[in-house]
Amino acid sequence: MKKMLIIGVLTGVAMLGACTKFAAMKGPFDGNKVNTAFVEYVVDKVEDRLDLTEEQRDQFKAMVERMAARALEQRPEVDALRAKMAEEIRKPRLDMDTLETLMKERMQFFRIIMEEEKDAFVAFHANLTDEQKGALAQLILDHGKNGWHGAH
């Protein structure tokens, strides 16, 4: 009976972890709001890799939440750009000037978020130990090696 209870609890924990990762993999948005599972997944991944203190975790989480909220605000404009890109790609011949302009506009939205959060990132970095800075650098190097949702 005890063995069955332990197996049941472990199965439940594994399923919860899988559901959380699946919910996170839907991306940063859940309809017209920020996908909190995505935010938690990102924060948990960094916390795990960097062994963050509670204060560092809170600092990092606040930064991720602000970035996701800002990206959500930008979503209508980004979706409109995506539609323009799709329209351009459907044409028999691409207009490289138009495509380049659309790509630059899209990248500008990323730059806005990065610019708004650079001071927060510098403050977060200042609170890291040398070991944590090395782990963060390695996390950046590893990101995307196994696909964007690959193993951490």
Rg computed from alpha carbons, rounded to a whole number of angstroms: 20 Å
Neighbour order of strands in the largest sheet: 1-2
Total count of strands = 2
Approximate helicity band: over 70%
Q: Gap between N and C termini, in Å?
A: 35 Å
Which residues form runs of ≥5 with pLDDT under 50? 5-18
Give a short account of the largest sheet.
2 strands, antiparallel
Please, could you describe this protein's structure?
This protein is an all-alpha fold and 152 residues long. It contains five helices and two strands. It has a two-stranded antiparallel sheet. A hairpin with a 2-residue loop joins strand 1 (29-30) and strand 2 (33-34). It is elongated. Mean pLDDT is 83; it is low at 5-18.
Search tags:
single chain, mainly alpha, two-stranded antiparallel ribbon, 79% helix
Concise structural overview:
The chain is mainly α. It is built from 5 helices and 2 strands. Helix content is 79%, strand content 3%.
Topology readout:
Elements: H1 2-25, E1 29-30, E2 33-34, H2 36-50, H3 54-90, H4 96-126, H5 130-142
Antiparallel strand pairs: 1-2
Helix pairs in contact: 1-2, 2-3, 3-4
